[in-house]
Amino acid sequence: MTTSVRILLIEDSPSDQEMIKRALDRHRRAEFQVTSHETLREGMKSLVEGEFDIVLLDLSLPDSHGLESLESVMEIAPEVPVVVLSGLQDEQTAVEAVKRGAQNFLTKGKFEADLLARSILYAIQRKRLELNLQRAHDELEERVEERTEQIRQMQEEAGRREEEFAHAARLTMLGELMTGLAHELNQPLMSIVAFTSTAQQLVADKAPYRDLAPPLERILSGATLAGEIIRRLRRMVRRSEPQSEPLNINDVIREAMQFLSRELESRNVRVEFSLAPLLPSVMGDRIQLQQVVLNLVSNALQAIDRAGERTDNRAHRVAIATRLESPSGEVVARVTNTGPVISTEEMEQLFNPFFTTRPEGLGLGLAISKSLVESHGGRIEAQQADDEGMTFLFSLPAKKQREQLTADQDGRSQDTSSIK
Question: Residues 299, 366: contact at Cβ < 8 Å?
Fold first, then answer.
């Protein structure tokens, strides 16, 4: 098969042009298509507009001379090989041209047809090899950079995971510590309650001690409340099987908020309750649902911290509301904060494990809340609030609805087993 080679010949001597064309015509192993111009400007225009496999370039042209001609050609067509044509007096310049990027040089009047053709074909092949080698080198460098970046990201991710696991370990240790601490505190609190009750009996209806009755009652009430908080704390941090029982979601919210009362006060955050009365019970584990409420309110407080002080001098607020959804019959709880609005991309990842918008965050609170709500047959979602901040909602099936759902699932399970 005959090779077709497109040549751009930039040579100002018509006789040299004719000599080169005749020499190439005598070569039978390739078909050479020669386009010739006498000036660099015309040759450059043709090079831009057409497609060529090689340029034969005279270094002595009417509008350019020496290495400037080579540099101009290589600038606009860096992938096209160049063979320099020189006279006897320009051989030193031709050697320098090869050093600058030309594939070869030929001295006019001293080459035969076969040498000319071979020089052209070899120059094309060498240029292709150079380009392929350069592409391979560039691809290798790019892959090395990509791999280096991947390794860096993996190292950073491993570092974050290590910190997260260390944090989780600290939380586990803290839970065990709190269980022991709650047990130890419960003993003196029981003593306070017992001695205060005895003191109340001793001073009852005795005129000299009547003024002690109100403070004794407050001591007894405070110690009893402290004991109840500690018992709830122990239930929350200890490992135990979930206990499903009929619950009033409003009571669950009130009990959970007692744990955060001091934190809310210290942060100057106002809590607004709008709890619907006469809500139907939901079936669930009290501690787990309290954990959901605590996670959502804690998340709201963290968002408020990121927002900073309000420009209107008003206090930040957390709004907690409940309602009965119609016609689904689900009980819905809503927690709204006045913190910053997050982006759509962040919204899509909010409930993913280890996703957090805080550098010091673990990124597990919302993921755990989602898992707990879904284990109760409910659903949880986040929305942009109507005026400011974010709203988190979780819904749970009412007791009768949950019982019917469980019965339907059991029925489907029995039907499936009978088919088997």
Answer: yes
Long-range contacts for 12-17 (Cβ within 8 Å, ≥24 apart)?
A: 12/38, 12/39, 12/58, 12/60, 12/61, 12/62, 13/58, 14/38, 16/58, 16/85, 16/108
List the chain residues with pLDDT less than 70.
1-2, 88, 163-176, 178, 229, 232-242, 307-315, 353-364, 386-387, 401-420
d(C-alpha 303, C-alpha 314), whole Å: 16
CA-CA distance, 298 to 301, in Å (whole number)? 5
Which token pair is 137? 């080198």
Class of domain 159-235: mainly alpha
Per-residue pLDDT tens over the stretch 379-389? 999 888 766 77
Long-range contacts of 95-104 (CB under 8 A, 24+ apart): 96/67, 97/59, 97/67, 97/70, 100/67, 100/70, 100/71, 100/74, 101/70, 101/74, 102/57, 102/70, 103/127
CATH 3.40.50.2300 for the 3-111 domain, yes or no? yes
- Domain boundaries in the chain? 3-111, 159-235, 247-411
Closest CA to 314 of 389, 203, 254: 389
Q: Which residues of 142-170 are buried (b: 16+ CB within 10 A; e: fewer)?
A: eeeeeeeeeeeeeeeeeeeeeebeeeeee
Fold exhibited by the domain 247-411? Heat Shock Protein 90 (3.30.565)
List pLDDT tens digits, range 132-161.
Answer: 998 999 899 999 999 999 888 888 887 777
